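Protocol step 4 of 5: obtain the predicted structure for the target chain.
Materials: sequence only (see below). No template structures provided, no constraints applied. The aim of this step is simply to have a reference model before the mutagenesis design in step 5. Sequence pasted as it appears in the construct record:
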Amino acid sequence: MDPHLLRTFVAVAETGSFSAAAQRLSYTQSAVSQQIAALEADLGIPLLTRRPVALTTAGERLHRHATLLLTRLAAARADVTRSVAPPGRLIVGLTPLAWSPRVMAALARIRAEHPRLSSRVLVDGRDRIVTAAVTGEIDLALVDGFAAPSDPLPLPHQPRAGAIGAGEEPAVVAVPARHPLARRTGVNLADLADAAWIDAPVVAPRARLPVDGLRAGMRYDGGDVTVLIGLAEAGQGLTVLPAGLVAARPGLAGVPITAPRLVHRIELLRPEDPGEPAAALAASLLRNP
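Step 4 output (structure tokens):
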């Protein structure tokens, strides 16, 4: 199967439209149609219905394989080009809640030790950062999430070098300081299913909490932690945050979660053969979790 055809197929599957896929890929709509037809002819089976555009059963199976194949191809390309790239690059990827003064201090030390270092920080949602780490777009990643104590985070693509725990602290429900829940010594998340929650898919995804049916009262699509905290302080909805972050805000109270048991976990992702600056930064962060 031609990777170019697979890339077009994934674009159509993800956008749900031939025209939207064409716009994403900078192709004409007829070119997208021709490439999908060529892929279906190669496999001898329909992958998409046309009106409306939707995946067939075979298309769903191929989509699962195609996303992994394209990610691995990008990783192979990055690994080869990294071997001949000039030294002195450090690109760090962070999810919003993985940022901390400790991370910035460690990065500042590495930059001071390498005055000619070309560095960049990319902040985005977990799926985007993990994919960037797997494909070699970034040299080091710190991703966060909520999980049972000592459990690893469920990541969409595992880097070959794996993920290493780089920090863990209690998770709490963040509420305004004068909220009735603020006086509680503990809470079961299932008991708050009917409360209004802030749906913040980039910063603190409600869907990744191990409780079904939490009702979204407001959606925040940005990646700024300060905005999410401000919404919680203003009483616009509940959210789960790291205990240390909530404790630093006088307008917020953190209610301990008694069930399910949850911690905020940070994991470090790096390629198998990172450059010297990335390896030094990783070592610094793992020495002081």
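Step 4 remarks: The longest helix spans residues 57-84. The chain has a mean pLDDT of 89.
Proceed to step 5.
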